[in-house]
Amino acid sequence: MTGVLPAGPVRAVIIDLDGTMVDTAGDFHAAINAMLEALGAAPDMSAQEIVGYVGKGSENLVRRVLDARLPPAQANSRFAEALDAYQRAYIAINGRYVNVYDGVREGLDTLRGMGLALACVTNKPHDFTQPLLAQLGLAPYFDLVYPGDAFPYRKPDPYPMLRVAEAFGVRATDVVAIGDSENDARAARAAGMRVLAVPYGYNHGQPVQAAGADAIVDSLFAAAQLIRPHATPGHTMHRAMSAASN
């Protein structure tokens, strides 16, 4: 671990999904190459290249892949077709090639045991997010789940982070966000929240050490241990799922 968590009460925690709780690189790899094949392009994109594009939503992912694989005119004219092909492929394989990272379940158990409110905020679309959380047995841990299409704005915009604090009835300064990328750190910082980052995720292919987190933690369980001295239960929303998560 490097860095420290600044002093102050912690009443709620926001946790990212892809690259933070779940390694979904295999699903992205399969769905993107199925999309390329449907477009008549060579389905030969590596998982390493694909995860460098992950983190800003499906539209951005598809756009980046098309820009890398097709001439500019085709990348623009075939975007809608490609996005549809990608979404159909992803829904078909969602959760097939994923793994929950070590320490995630232990971390969630620990945070829940502290009486803290938990939210999952991800740029992943609702139709991918909810089935995956349910399939992996992670959904019951969360009071709120805000997918990437829940609001007009997504990370790195602070909007969904602020909506979490509002829903829980806590100050933004009483919330800690945990993620794997600059998107997570920027959104949390702009909202006035503290930030922890895990080093094993995606972060657009860049070292997470430069993302601007207060501390880098080895796992979600390590994050929970760092939060423990600051844990101060007192949110006003308890075990109620958001309309956006239904």
From TrEMBL:
Q: In which pathway does it act?
A: Organic acid metabolism; glycolate biosynthesis; glycolate from 2-phosphoglycolate: step 1/1
* Alphabetized SUPFAM superfamilies for the sequence: HAD-like (SSF56784)
One GO term in the molecular function aspect is:
metal ion binding
Coiled-coil segments on the chain, per record: none
InterPro entries per UniProt: HAD-like_hydrolase_sf, HAD-like_sf, HAD-SF_hydro_IA, HAD_2, HAD_sf, PGP-like_dom2, PGPase_prok
In this chain, Mg(2+) is annotated as bound at: D16, D18, D180
Pfam families associated with the record: HAD_2 (PF13419)
In terms of HAMAP family, this protein maps to: GPH_hydrolase_bact
- List the PANTHER family hit by this protein, alphabetically: PHOSPHOGLYCOLATE PHOSPHATASE
- Primary role: Specifically catalyzes the dephosphorylation of 2-phosphoglycolate. Is involved in the dissimilation of the intracellular 2-phosphoglycolate formed during the DNA repair of 3'-phosphoglycolate ends, a major class of DNA lesions induced by oxidative stress.
Task: Indicate the quaternary assembly.
Answer: Homotrimer.
What is the protein name for this chain? Phosphoglycolate phosphatase
Q: What organism does the record attribute this protein to? A: blood disease bacterium A2-HR MARDI
Q: Which lineage ranks, top first, belong to the organism behind this chain?
A: Bacteria, Pseudomonadati, Pseudomonadota, Betaproteobacteria, Burkholderiales
